[in-house]
Amino acid sequence: MTKIAIIGSGYVGTTTAAVFASKGHSVICIDRDKPKVDAINNGECTIFEPGLKELISSSVSKGSLRASLNIAEAKDSEVFLICVGTPMKADGSADLDYIEGAAKDIGSALKDRSKYFVVATRSTVPPGTARNIVLPAVEKASGKKAGQDFGVCMVPEFLREGHAVQDFTNADRVVIGELDSKSGDMLNEVYSCIKGPKLRCGLPEAEMIKYMANSYLAKDISFANEMANLCKSEGIDYWTVKKGAQLDSRISPRSFLVAGLGFGGSCFPKDVRAIRALAKKNNLNTFVLDATLKADAEQPLKLIEQVAKDFELKNKKIGVLGLAFNPDTDDIRESKSLILIEELIKRKAKVLAYDPKAIENFRKESNLNAELASSGQELIDKSDIILIATAWKEFKDLSYKDKPVYEGRKLFDSANPPKNYKGGICW
């Protein structure tokens, strides 16, 4: 059992804390947001993530998980995991102020500590962050020496929202970037409770692995959309083409070739822009990344154009089913639903929207003037045209009657579509 402090209680921090606590570690979450701290201490969760609330409740009840506003309460921790946000700056680069602030807070809290500890970054950060920002910040604030008094690691997260608990518990891989073997050994012991192969490497390599993985997956989506758009224009079934292509041993059946509105969420858009900004800082061209972002930005508008070919949009009541960027999450960050709604409003349509989990976040985080329905069926009943923007399984069971239905996500199979099904964005 290791005493672990998690700095930051967003998606990554909360999931990391809950899973480690459920595995027998003693975990304390440190956050400046009192509602988040209170929620965790009450066994509750401020985000929707399947299985997460149950883990938090169980761990709090057993005494293996708690939260605090005061980092001094974590000063006897052996491992500190930095899980704070890295928002995007105007130029696309990652804002590392929260990372540096967390490192300073850790160092300040441990000035009087004599026992060795490890500070590990779990947030997605550009290569060089652990060595050039985290390490010196902890050293300066604590008066201690990295490699001697404390260790430094980078342990990137590979969590899909909606599958975070599963992805962490049964990981594809655990990557441990280490300042030295002593640092890495301690993190390796902490992560011994997590299934999955482990790769130990240098700090910048671990930081770059996360960016390369996300950029590659984002590229796959834009490529899939490009191929699907072409297939649709030629009357070809993209999903058959995809299946056939993935029979090639060089193309994994798990390849991220899912066509639709494009990618969203807190990772892909931000991470692709951040790594592109880093490349430009080094005077390197990013042809593939540039094309990935350009294709993704244009893709959702194709669904609007598809509807506009069939109907006059002005004054039409158009229902948008789904606000979250993916099903099984309440996260609306970079959701393509927002682009659809914004474009529909520009074209003078009346928009009615619904999501089973993300409505409150839409109310709080969006200034778009859309009416909100209390259920999917109410949305259908009150709308002239239906757009499916998030593939929530429950949307399959709604009665679409004779309303025109357009898909931005692949929800229906070709054998059993709604009565007045108008097709998908690129199929």
Report the portion of residues in β strands.
Answer: 5-15%
Instruction: Name the overall outline.
Output: globular
CATH homologous group name of the largest domain: NAD(P)-binding Rossmann-like Domain
The termini sit apart by: 52 Å
Helix % is 40-55%
Structural commentary:
With 427 residues, this protein is of the alpha/beta class. The protein folds into two domains: 3-201, Rossmann fold, CATH 3.40.50.720; 217-424, NAD(P)-binding Rossmann-like Domain (Rossmann fold, 3-Layer(aba) Sandwich), CATH 3.40.50. 41% of the residues lie in helices and 14% in strands. The protein contains 14 helices and 14 strands. An eight-stranded mixed beta sheet has the order 3-2-1-4-5-6-7-8, sandwiched between helices. Strands 11-10-9-12-13-14 form a six-stranded parallel beta sheet, with helices on both faces. Helix 4 packs parallel to helix 5, helix 8 (203-233) crosses helix 10 (268-281) and helix 11 packs across helix 12. The protein is globular. It starts with a strand and ends with a strand. The mean pLDDT is 97.
List the helices and strands and how they pair.
Elements: E1 3-7, H1 11-22, E2 26-30, H2 34-41, H3 52-62, E3 65-68, E4 79-82, H4 97-109, E5 117-121, H5 129-142, E6 150-154, H6 164-169, E7 174-178, H7 181-190, E8 198-201, H8 203-233, H9 238-245, H10 268-281, H11 287-310, E9 317-321, H12 336-346, E10 350-354, H13 359-365, E11 371-372, H14 376-382, E12 385-388, E13 405-407, E14 421-424
Parallel strand pairs: 1-2, 1-4, 2-3, 4-5, 5-6, 7-8, 9-10, 9-12, 10-11, 12-13, 13-14
Antiparallel strand pairs: 6-7
Helix pairs in contact: 1-3, 4-5, 8-10, 8-11, 11-12
